From TrEMBL:
GO biological process terms held by the UniProt record: response to toxic substance
UniProt family annotation: Belongs to the resistance-nodulation-cell division (RND) (TC 2.A.6) family.
SUPFAM superfamilies, alphabetized: Multidrug efflux transporter AcrB pore domain, PN1, PN2, PC1 and PC2 subdomains (SSF82693), Multidrug efflux transporter AcrB TolC docking domain, DN and DC subdomains (SSF82714), Multidrug efflux transporter AcrB transmembrane domain (SSF82866)
Cell inner membrane as UniProt keyword: yes
Cited InterPro entries: AcrB_DN_DC_subdom (IPR027463), Acrflvin-R (IPR001036), MdtF-like (IPR004764)
Name of protein: Multidrug transporter
Alphabetized UniProt keyword annotations: Cell inner membrane, Cell membrane, Membrane, Transmembrane, Transmembrane helix, Transport
Residues that span the membrane, as ranges: 272-291, 298-322, 328-349, 370-392, 398-420, 483-502, 817-835, 842-862, 868-896, 917-938, 944-969
Native organism: Lasius niger (Black garden ant)
MF GO annotations: efflux transmembrane transporter activity; xenobiotic transmembrane transporter activity
């Protein structure tokens, strides 16, 4: 399969029962139909080399996500149905309709439909001198659908009077009919029927899996999402179909959803919408605080719905949906999209106040002053966010949502600020010094107006005092420029140092109100033992967390590591987020409690963990590692070195729950056959094979009809006849002379230890290892620690590769610095073109470390990592830092060109721009603070990006208002930049 277009990696698993799976992972954006066609073409090439048994059974090529989209549990609280009854009903009546729902890519049933089970008694077979092949042949001959033909069928004589179909022997339909199948007629004409030598009953086609829901009998159906399908739309379609089928359910059959991502997605979107509303309210409150004028406040407020609606339209036109990421981007954009309108309104108010112009004239003059700055700010924001849209992979998908949303909102905001806001300022604002007696004369409105007027006077007095202190501080910074620059360099160095040492990560862990669990018994554990363990886990979880745990769905014989009697899994469904307000009630803490309680359980190893933040990228949080045999080690050597790594990882304080995600080697009984001796006894190879298959395994014979559905017929030895190797003595084979020869006359066996599952990664033997970082440790640190453990393994010969979520994290790790560098270069070029100068952009870009410093400090203080959301937050901080710097530098450069000295120009610009800078910065901070303190669904992502932006914006604002004037003065002085008029005279 190697060489397929866009193939990233391939893994395969081979099981002891003869099954094999090959998982091919393609790059994001690959056309799944083309990929499937290429895989099928490759299979056609190698198919002649495969065993005939494999070819005859068929090879399925499915395009589906690796993880489950949803799991539906069907259960009977009144015990009116057994788990086998439920599984048969689901397989017969529910599975197919749901699998045909548009968007469903694959499905897996935790159980099986009914089959006709024929349990053979070896003692009775011996007494009647029967081989297993006799039973098989009788079934094939007597359970048959025979097309007998027609009466009067063509060609027919001319005098034919009738044409009718002849109904011949038909397939059997019930147990009684199977019991009457004739096996043998004795010499005395007595008959031996199937009921004489076997127990016949309806039973599961496969006993490999069983399920329970809160310890009630159950079966489960897992659905996978098709590539490119919309998850919410698909889940809604599944729910609609399920409601339709529910009307025909047997009495007592209920269903629930142990795994369902829809509530998490919808709740997280609702939480973001709530945050968006809070952000808008806070932004409006800040504008009212600074502008102290309802008319002036209304103007930028109206920009919010206009820009939001326009952004929704652009997203729809580009094929994007309203999801958690786009809504989160809009929360960030709320503080930004009113900035342009705020700058316009504030400057118009300032011009009217200082120059006593009418609103119309003040608006005209104000737009002449700030249009360039507004355009420059939007160009810078575009330069920062637009490159994110061109990143590939899963990281690019996340970046793209933010990039398109914010860039669209910014350009719409600029359009509103340049077109609508000036028109509204000229018509709505009132000249300073005028009053509105109609309002002042009213009771309640008059009191409100008086309150704002008094409050405004006090606020303005306080702000003027603050401005005076600020200008004095700027003057000292300029006077002691060497010390000031030294302080700046120290801050910049601190930002770089802390940024480098910020632990790497990929996505923050989320509480999705779900817990996954894996159970591993000893290698030869039985399903009965597994049922005891899953029963205890369910009972403990429900009793310990009666208000937090809604349900526990367990699966015996299935886990994400493999299938077998010693494997099990469980899904814990938690109460909604508002019912679990405390940290101890979080999914992570409850999962930890489950592991701690069962950690010393001698029966099994039990792991509990949260689902990954992105369900398509694995089944658990933490890291996914493939340990690869690159040194041609024997399996024993490879296994010993893996166990050594696991042992050291268990003692490592940076790691927790490090485990093999596979099946351990188990005891196996090797049955040897002396075929030469058997042939000498007159026993054919076919009889030997049938006897061994029927005695120790099962033989599929043919089909029968039940409830108008075709089901299968199986022959197998009764359980008591295959408990251990000694039971082989009970089996006999009839030779050509009619003598019954014991099986152990020509067979013998011995015990060995062998693999239940063989894994390969990119064509090399491998072991999959999963694990999680310890508390307070990032995923990147945990991954680095695992690499150290592998490299320190004595003997070498080991390689490694990251898969699933970890693969995406490593792939994205090298893209951060190029992204920052590209954004900085584009900002520089945009500003150079705007100001027609190479030096002024340098004065603006020097502000960048100041925002990064705060972002890193606050992120570190909350034990967050340098993940995708932090990177988006840093870019947002960079954009806002540059925006504030532009507001000062733009005016300072104008004053410098009008004849002021560098220091005078810088101080005058700082004084005039302090109010809009603080107003826009505080408005933005108020808009994102709800993100930093978010709770509920999706809070991890919101807190990560909110923390970064709040910290970065705080330091960028506090430090930039002092350092930007310094940068302007010293950079222009160092490069000896002359005023524009002086240049023209020269």
């Amino acid at each position: 399969m190697f060489g397929l277009d866009h193939l990233e990696y391939a893994s395969s698993s081979s099981y002891g029962n003869g099954a094999m799976e090959i998982d091919l992972t393609f790059a994001q954006g690959t056309n799944p139909d083309i990929a499937q066609m290429q895989v099928q073409n490759r299979l056609q090439v190698v198919q002649p080399q495969l065993p005939q048994e494999v070819v005859s059974q068929g090879i399925s090529v499915l395009k589906e996500q690796k993880s489950f989209m949803m799991v539906i549990a069907f259960y009977a609280k009144d015990h009116s149905m057994t788990d086998a009854d439920i599984a048969d009903y689901v397989a017969s009546n529910v599975q197919d309709p749901l699998s045909r729902v548009n968007g469903v890519g694959g499905h897996e049933l935790f159980g099986s439909e009914y089959a006709m089970r024929i349990w053979l008694d070896p003692d009775k077979l011996y007494n009647y001198s029967l081989n297993i092949s006799d039973i098989e042949n009788a079934l094939r001959q007597q359970n048959i659908q025979l097309p007998a033909g027609e009466l009067g069928g063509l060609p027919a004589n001319k005098d034919a009077k009738i044409n009718a179909t002849i109904i011949g022997p038909r397939r059997l339909v019930d147990v009684d009919q199977f019991k009457k199948i004739l096996i043998k007629v004795n010499e005395d004409n007595s008959r031996v029927t199937l009921g004489d030598v076997a127990k016949i009953e309806l039973g599961p086609q496969s006993f490999d899996m069983s399920s329970s829901q809160n310890n009630y009998p159950a079966s489960g159906l897992a659905l996978k999402l098709a590539p490119g399908a919309n998850q919410l739309e698909t889940e809604n379609a599944v729910l609609d179909k399920l409601h339709e089928l529910e009307a025909y359910f047997p009495p007592g059959l209920e269903y629930s959803f142990p795994l369902d991502t829809k509530p998490y997605i919808t709740h997280s979107i609702e939480e973001v919408i709530e945050t968006l509303v809070i952000a808008i309210i806070l932004v409006v409150a800040v504008m009212l605080l600074f502008l102290q004028n309802l008319r002036a406040t209304i103007i930028p407020t109206l920009a919010v719905p206009i820009v939001l609606l326009g952004t929704f339209g652009i997203l729809a036109a580009l094929g994007y949906t309203l999801n958690t990421l786009t809504m989160l981007a809009l929360v960030l954009a709320v503080g930004l999209l009113v900035d342009d309108a705020i700058v316009v309104v504030e400057n118009v108010e300032r011009v009217m106040s200082e120059e006593h112009l009418s609103p119309k004239e003040a608006t005209r003059k104000s737009m002449e002053e700030i249009s360039g700055a507004l355009f420059g700010i939007v160009m810078v924001l575009t330069a920062v966010f637009l490159p994110m849209a061109f990143f590939a992979g899963s990281v690019g998908i996340i970046y793209r949502q933010f990039s398109i949303t914010i860039v669209a909102a910014m350009w719409l905001s600029l359009g509103v600020a340049l077109v609508l806001t000036p028109a509204m300022c000229a018509t709505i604002l009132k000249p300073h010094g005028t009053h509105e007696p109609a309002i002042e004369g009213r009771g309640l409105f008059g009191k409100i107006s008086l309150f704002f007027e008094n409050f405004g006077d006090r606020f303005n007095h306080l702000f003027e005092h603050l401005t005076a202190k600020y200008i004095a501080g700027v003057q000292k910074v300029l006077e002691h420029w060497k010390i000031s620059f030294s302080i700046f360099l120290a801050l910049a160095a601190s930002a770089v140092f802390l940024f480098i040492h910020l632990p790497p990560g990929f996505l923050p862990e989320e509480d999705q109100a779900k817990i996954f669990g894996m159970i591993q018994l000893r290698s030869n554990g039985t399903q009965a033992q597994m049922k005891e363990v899953t029963h205890d886990i369910t009972e403990w979880a429900l009793k310990t967390y009666p208000h937090d745990v809604d349900s526990v769905f367990t699966m015996n014989g299935f886990s994400f590591a493999g299938q077998g009697q010693n494997n099990g899994a469980f899904f814990v469904n938690l109460a909604s987020w508002d019912k679990r307000p405390h940290q101890s009630q979080s999914a992570q803490e409850i999962a930890k409690a489950i592991m701690m309680h069962f950690w010393m359980d001698p029966r099994a190893r039990i792991f509990a963990f949260s689902p990954p933040p992105v369900s398509e990228l694995g089944n658990a949080t933490g890291f996914d590692l493939e340990l690869i045999n690159e040194g041609n080690l024997t399996r024993e050597e490879f296994l010993a070195r893996r166990d050594d790594i696991l042992m050291r990882a268990a003692r490592d304080p940076l790691l927790t729950a490090v485990r093999p995600n596979g099946m351990e080697d188990a005891a196996q009984y090797v049955l040897e056959v002396d075929r030469g001796k058997a042939n000498a006894m007159g026993i054919s190879n076919e009889e030997i094979n049938d006897t061994i298959s029927g005695a120790l395994g099962s033989i599929y014979v043919n089909q029968f009809l039940r409830n108008n559905r075709v089901k299968q017929v199986y022959i197998q030895a009764e359980p008591s006849a295959r408990m251990n190797e000694r039971d082989l003595k009970r089996w006999y084979v009839r030779n050509q002379t009619g003598e019954m020869v014991p099986l152990n006359a020509f067979t013998w066996g011995h015990w060995v230890t062998g693999p239940q599952k063989l894994e390969n990664y990119n064509g090399l033997p491998s072991f999959e290892i999963n694990g999680e970082p310890a508390a307070g440790v990032s995923s990147g640190e945990a991954m680095n620690e695992m690499v150290k453990l592998i490299k320190a393994t004595p003997g070498g010969g080991l390689g490694y590769a990251w898969t699933e979520l970890s693969y995406e994290q490593v792939s994205a790790g090298g893209s951060t610095l190029p992204l920052y560098a590209l954004a900085s270069i584009i900002i520089f070029l945009c500003l150079a073109g705007l100001y027609e100068s190479w030096t002024i952009p340098a004065a603006v870009l020097l502000v960048l470390p100041l925002g990064v410093l705060g972002a890193v400090i606050l992120t570190m203080s909350r034990d967050y990592a340098n993940d995708i959301y932090f990177q988006i937050g840093v870019l947002t901080t960079v954009a806002l830092s540059v925006k504030n710097a532009i507001l000062i530098v733009e005016f300072a450069y104008e004053y410098y060109n009008l004849g002021a000295s560098l220091a005078e120009a810088a101080m005058k610009a700082a004084q005039q721009r302090l109010r809009p800078i603080l107003m826009t910065s505080i408005a933005f901070l108020c808009g994102v603070i709800p993100l930093a303190i978010a709770t509920g669904a999706g809070a991890g992502a919101r807190r990560a990006i909110g923390t970064c932006v709040v910290g970065g914006m705080f330091t960028a604002t506090i430090f930039a208002v002092y350092f930007v004037p310094l940068f302007f003065v010293e950079v222009l002085r160092f490069f000896k930049v002359k005023p524009v008029k002086e240049k023209e005279e020269c």
